[in-house]
Task: inverse folding
């Protein structure tokens, strides 16, 4: 399975927000500059994150985005589902997949379902707060400039 840039950028941007959580909204331009992510791409991603209830948006000179929930209440599954849709290792694992003539007797489908479920469990059990802890530990171990 390959998580796309959308999912990776969403996780990096939210980690940046969690690390710089001052209680005030953060401009996307700040996140874009800190993470070297195109701002136009972040606008698109944050629209999906807002729709999913992960971030709140505020207009005006003091506007920007804030996390809608505490980092401990945001799972990686929440973020990836909002940014990319449900995690599926293979197309045939989607319920609407009907083009496979081997679907009813596929010898490997049950294996892929099990692996896919395990991946989902990892994403569901890992939170943004846990990512912060991991990031901070890595940051302590690296000399010089470290980016998320």
Result:
């Amino acid at each position: 399975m390959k998580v796309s840039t959308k999912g990776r950028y969403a996780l990096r941007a939210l980690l940046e927000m969690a690390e710089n959580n001052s209680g005030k909204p953060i401009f996307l331009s700040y996140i874009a500059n800190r993470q070297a992510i195109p701002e136009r791409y972040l606008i698109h991603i944050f629209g999906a994150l807002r729709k999913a209830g992960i971030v709140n948006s505020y207009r005006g000179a003091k506007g920007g985005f804030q996390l809608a929930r505490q980092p401990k209440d945001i799972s990686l599954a929440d973020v990836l589902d909002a940014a990319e849709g449900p995690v599926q290792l293979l197309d045939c694992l989607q319920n609407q997949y009907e083009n496979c003539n081997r679907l009813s007797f596929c010898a490997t489908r049950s294996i892929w379902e099990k692996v896919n479920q395990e991946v989902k469990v990892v994403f569901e059990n890992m939170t943004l707060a846990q990512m912060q802890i991991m990031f901070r530990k890595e940051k302590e171990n690296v000399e010089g400039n470290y980016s998320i």
Remarks:
- The longest helix spans residues 109-125.
- The beta strands are 55-58, 64-67.
- The CA atoms of residues 55 and 67 lie 4 Å apart.
